[in-house]
Amino acid sequence: QEQLVESGGGQVQPGGSLRLSCAASEDFSGINAMAWYRQAPGKQRELVASHADAGYTDYADSVKGRFTISRDNAKNTVNLQMNGLKPEDTAVYFCNAGYYSGKYYRPVYWGQGTQVTVSS
């Protein structure tokens, strides 16, 4: 069974940090990249950060300089270090395995999502 297992979500005060982790229980076929998405209430799901097999990374403008995506290919995991968290970062965060089509990340396999809440 192809699964993405997420951990690290929770509640944090503004300015705090969280580290999300995601691991594939089995190897995925037809993918060469991994990513993190998020979806806030009443908003569309957005791509937060992506990481290609070759090491290319990309970030949403709203998180540049604050979030860092990293991969450990040997362990088939992807992490998202989130620093300087803001209330507007509150969302359900989803791990994803997919591929790049040109410059665009294409999602294929989804995790279940983990809640991140930034509030006082």
Q: How would a textbook summarize the main sheet?
A: 7 strands, mixed
Through-space gap between termini: 39 Å
Assess the beta-strand content as a share of residues.
over 45%
Shape: globular
Which whole number gives the mean pLDDT? 92
Total number of strands: 11
Element order: H for helix, E for strand: EEEEEEEEEEE
Structural class comes to: mainly beta
**What is the number of helices?**
0
What Rg is obtained from the alpha carbons, in whole angstroms?
A: 13 Å
Low-confidence stretches are none
Helix proportion? under 10%
Concise summary:
With 120 residues, the protein is an all-beta fold. Helices cover 0% and strands 55% of the residues. It has no helices and 11 strands.
List the helices and strands and how they pair.
Elements (H helix, E strand, L loop, with lengths): L3 E4 L2 E3 L5 E7 L8 E7 L6 E7 L4 E3 L7 E6 L4 E6 L8 E11 L2 E7 L3 E5 L2
Parallel strand pairs: 2-11
Antiparallel strand pairs: 1-3, 3-8, 4-5, 4-9, 5-6, 7-8, 9-10, 9-11
Structural notes for this entry:
The protein has 120 residues and is mostly beta strands. It has no helices and eleven strands. The protein has strands at residues 4-7, 10-12, 18-24, 33-39, 46-52, 57-59, 67-72, 77-82, 91-101, 104-110, 114-118. The strands form two sheets. Strands 2, 4, 5, 6, 9, 10 and 11 form a seven-stranded mixed beta sheet that branches. A four-stranded antiparallel beta sheet has the order 1-3-8-7, with no helix packed on it. The radius of gyration is 13 Å and the shape is globular. The protein starts with a strand and ends with a strand.
